[in-house]
Specification:
The protein is mostly helical and about 425 residues long. About 60% of the residues lie in helices and about 0% in strands. Helix 6 packs antiparallel against helix 8 and helix 11 packs antiparallel against helix 12.
């Protein structure tokens, strides 16, 4: 006799053929743990998040012979050689000064060779550093059950709420949201690394004048900030052990990781990081009314004005044009060119926001003062009686007065001084 389940097509056939002793749907292995398909999907999301936050391959050219890098390499090498030739000519025309000019020409020769060699080695060095960061990030976040993503994978199978559909839905929602923020981190980091790698030859060419490293230091600071930004998520690592065993608490850690990823963009991406983070916050706040989502976005992207930092009120950040202008001034100074620094002012949008905030705060203070005055007018405070001074001697009794009026004062004694 043929199996009656053969007449059923689709997922219903698996339910028909399952073991009657099973307490859950097909593939769950009983009542404990999420199904194999659910765990596979969760691990797939985790791998995508890791690959977006710290990918093993970047968009930056891996070799100096890349078609994208070659024009910048050509520009940097010719710029360095031109600066070196200018230094040699100046030293030849002022050779009568003796040792100082010889020292300057020697320093220019050495630093020019260093700059030309460094231009060709930057793409390979960035590629190796990117692979090291990716390996370290993977080891720190998914190597075993004590890491964040490793704990989530383990809790999907052995957690206390691994068989709870609501807990599985919460952790999947948190993973999907984290995936969206990871994609934003990936785009901003990769574009930033690509831009700074292509900027390397013109920046390194500034060394040819005599070894002024101020421009190179600023460039390296920005590039290394982008490279090591993913390690900001290490702040959640101490709490992984406390969350182990519960998918819901794992989801809370993922929400904290989302806020850290926004901070990563806000602080780690030069020039455009605050604008990108604020755009993400505006997008989320405009499409959801959840107070929790608003709180997470405020934690990741604080309120700010666009200028230099200030110790009070909402922080002030630079516009992309002002930040690039200041860094360009440092680079020009390394070339020996003086670029005047323009004073900063608030942008139109920030000025309007600051004016509205000041008006709101002033109105609030005036309202508070008005309420306090009204309170004191309606409920006047009784004045406390002043305490009388205590003396050792008893106070003199008041003189008695007659019905006809006070007694006449006796005439003063001529031989006695008047009483004050």
């Amino acid at each position: 006799m043929s199996d009656p389940c053969d007449a059923i097509k689709g997922p219903g056939k698996a339910y028909c053929e399952r073991d009657p002793s099973s307490n859950g749907p097909p593939g769950t292995g009983g009542a404990g743990g999420a199904s194999e398909h659910v765990r596979t999907l969760a691990e797939s999301l985790i791998r995508k998040i890791e690959g977006l936050i710290a990918p093993g391959h970047s968009w930056a050219p891996a070799k100096s012979g890349s078609g994208l890098y070659e024009p910048f390499l050509w520009l940097g090498q010719h710029l360095a050689v031109a600066i070196f030739v200018c230094v040699v000519v100046v030293c030849a025309l002022t050779a009568w000064q003796g040792a100082p000019r010889l020292k300057q020409m020697g320093a220019s020769t050495g630093w020019t060779l260093v700059a030309v060699a460094g231009m060709a080695s930057v793409p390979g060095a960035v590629m190796l550093l990117n692979k090291a960061v990716s390996s370290a990030f993977t080891a720190a976040f998914s190597s075993n059950e004590s890491t964040l993503f490793g704990a989530i994978s383990d809790d999907m199978q052995h957690g206390a709420d691994s068989g709870n559909p609501l807990a599985i839905l919460i952790i999947f929602s948190a993973l999907v949201v984290a995936l969206a923020f990871a994609a934003l981190v990936f785009m901003t980091r990769q574009l930033g690394i690509l831009a700074f790698v292509c900027m390397a030859p013109p920046v390194l060419a500034s060394l040819a004048r005599g070894g002024d490293t101020s421009g190179v230091k600023r460039w390296a600071q920005r590039l290394l900030g982008l490279m090591f930004a993913p390690f900001a998520l290490l702040l959640v690592s101490p709490f992984v052990k406390l969350a182990q065993g519960s998918l819901v608490v794992d989801a809370v850690l993922l929400v904290a990781a989302d806020a850290l990823m926004l901070r990563m963009i806000f602080h780690g991406v030069p020039y455009f990081g605050p604008k990108v983070a604020r755009a993400a916050r505006s997008y989320v706040e405009g499409r959801t009314a959840s107070p929790l989502a608003h709180a997470v976005m405020r934690a990741g992207v604080p309120d700010f004005y666009e200028r230099e930092n200030t110790p009070r009120g909402p922080r002030t950040v630079k516009t992309p044009g002002r930040a690039m202008s200041q860094d360009r001034g440092v680079l020009f100074a390394a070339y020996g060119l003086n670029k005047p620094d323009r004073s900063g002012r608030l942008t139109t949008a920030s000025a309007v926001a600051k004016e509205q905030r000041d008006k709101s705060e002033s109105a609030t203070r005036r309202q508070q003062l008005r309420e306090v005055r009204e309170q004191y007018r309606t409920n006047p405070q009784p004045q406390a009686a002043a305490p009388t001074a205590q003396t050792d001697s008893a106070p003199a009794p008041a003189p008695a007065t007659s019905p006809q009026g006070p007694a006449p004062t006796p005439p003063p004694d001529p031989g006695r001084p008047p009483t004050p």
